[in-house]
Specification:
It is built from two helices and five strands; from the N terminus they run βββββαα. It has 87 residues and is α+β, with helices and mostly antiparallel strands. It binds zinc ion (ZN).
């Protein structure tokens, strides 16, 4: 069973396991690698374009999130993911 989720940046729908899942743990952004942390998550494509766009929107306070995330921690997580994805 793999539910469908959508990227919060481009709204593209994909299987949950094909997306990056980030949860807000006491407002600190945490990458949920195993996708099993029982907190509401947000999803991103594993795509630098979406990750860059997410950071840009975050800096402008234009990324709409249902749950509160500490902005700096979320940007930092995205930076880490981008580094892992490589060039
Ligand atoms: Zn996307």
């Amino acid at each position: 069973m793999n539910p469908i989720r959508s990227c919060i940046v481009c709204r593209k729908k994909a299987r949950k396991d094909e997306l990056l899942r980030i949860v807000s743990c006491n407002e600190l952004a945490t990458l949920d690698r195993e996708q099993n942390i029982s907190l509401r998550g947000i999803y991103f494509c594993k795509d630098k374009k979406c990750l860059e766009k997410a950071k840009e929107l975050l800096r402008k306070d234009k990324l709409v999130l249902k749950k509160h995330f500490n902005k700096e921690s979320l940007i930092k997580i995205i930076d880490n993911i981008e580094n892992e994805l490589g060039e």
